[in-house]
Amino acid sequence: MKVTDHTFDIVVVGAGPAGLAAAKRAAESGASVALLDDNPQPGGQIWRSDPAQWQPLLGKLEPITGARVIAVPEPGRLTLEKFDGDLEIGYGRLILATGARERFLPFPGWTLPNVMGAGGLQALAKSGLPIEGKKVVVAGSGPLLLAVARFMRGHGAKPRLVAEQASDAALLRFGLGLVGHPGKLLQTLQFGAALLGVRHLTSCWPIAADGSGKLESVTLYRAGRIWKEPCDYLACGFGLIPNVELPALLGCRLSETGVEVDDYQQTSVPGVYAAGEVTGIGGLDLSLVEGEIAGNAAAGKPELAASLFGARTRHRRFAASLEKAFALREELKNLTQDDTLVCRCEDVSYERVRRCSGWRDAKLHTRCGMGPCQGRVCGGAVEFLLGWKPESVRPPVFPARIQSLSGPRCPRP
């Protein structure tokens, strides 16, 4: 049953750090604020199991959890799907804090059970997956690898090694730059102390996952050497990709790195703001300050928003150095073989995809990107491998129940 409910001054989509910070600042102005998230509780990926971090930002707000935005029936209204039905709400201003997801690069065996995203394995462990005593290889690129390895070790798993595709030289330059960011430097040192005895190999990446029925080992490459590393889990992720599907559906202009915003975090659509990783991958501190700027600006407090511009500039410099240090190397394009599945949902091989002229052609002839994930997994891979970007976004933004799409106000796909 569709329930047309409230209209709020400000609706915030996404209850991770950026969304929480935005909602808090907006609510402080006296505006009526709705905070939406598709997870059972706020916090996002980074604070998923740490209420002590997100509860102070939540304040007296009652978030609408377990709710996904699936469509925009008209300007100023959103259609949400919940576990127990669907809901339609209205807004005066909208703040998008939809975050990011992991980028996966296909390689032989990557569809084996127990080959998972680095953040995905961490999330499953936080939700109760038993990992004590399990051998784990963490591979890919970016600081998330160290965070996941530390989490695994702290919860009884046995990290075998961390395989980082970036070079020693790139990481050295990045490390020297941390001198200007004492908090980040301390965090890096803490990671190092927590992972003493765990091999950290640079210029190293997986070229195959091996096993009969499930993962048994991963084949790694480094400086001409190839070897098999026995493991129970491979936690693998090659950076993050902004979740721009909802902004695109709303007509927000996109850049190479995410949603384009002005100084006050407003998108190209008047009254629609964006903050956090959806505007470009920048880390926790940048997400928080962008959320505060967006919340203040949406609430009509431009002077408070402007007072945070300096902090945002500092955090953006760090984000730029992060992006440069962990840029994916060209050699990774050779991981995918002709018979490697690129689209897991529709069982489409790389050979079939690369024969197409672009995303639209691939969808028409192979159904790549047409499965339940709607290109969220294969899209990032194909963008890296072939340079293609999705050409359009249509409702529903996520797979939805038929009854959620049958209401008179819900636009047809």
Low-confidence stretches: none
Strand portion, in percent? Answer: 15-25%
What is the number of domains?
Answer: 3
The CA-CA distance between the termini, in Å, is 20 Å
Output the structural class: alpha/beta
What is the residue-averaged pLDDT?
91
Give the CATH superfamily of the largest domain.
FAD/NAD(P)-binding domain
Shape: globular
User: How many E strands?
Assistant: 18
- Sheet bearing the most strands, described? 6 strands, mixed
CATH topology of the largest domain: FAD/NAD(P)-binding domain
- CATH A-level architecture of the largest domain: 3-Layer(bba) Sandwich
What does this structure look like?
With 413 residues, the chain is α/β, with parallel strands linked by helices. It has three domains: 2-101 and 241-323, FAD/NAD(P)-binding domain, CATH 3.50.50; 104-238, FAD/NAD(P)-binding domain (3-Layer(bba) Sandwich), CATH 3.50.50; 330-386, no CATH class. It has 14 helices and 18 strands. The strands form five sheets. Strands 1, 2, 3, 4, 5 and 16 form a six-stranded mixed β-sheet that branches. Strand 17 and strand 18 (348-349) form a beta hairpin. Helix 5 runs antiparallel to helix 10 (309-325) and helix 8 (284-298) runs antiparallel to helix 10 (309-325).
How would you summarize the topology of this molecule?
Layout: E1 2-13, H1 17-28, E2 33-36, H2 51-58, E3 67-74, E4 77-82, E5 85-96, E6 100-102, E7 115-116, H3 118-126, E8 135-141, H4 144-154, E9 158-164, H5 168-177, H6 182-194, E10 199-201, E11 204-210, E12 217-222, E13 225-230, E14 233-238, E15 240-242, H7 245-249, E16 272-274, H8 284-298, H9 302-306, H10 309-325, E17 341-343, E18 348-349, H11 350-354, H12 359-366, H13 378-386, H14 402-405
Parallel strand pairs: 1-2, 1-5, 5-16, 7-14, 8-9, 8-14, 9-10
Antiparallel strand pairs: 3-4, 4-5, 6-15, 11-12, 12-13, 17-18
Helix pairs in contact: 1-8, 3-4, 5-10, 8-10
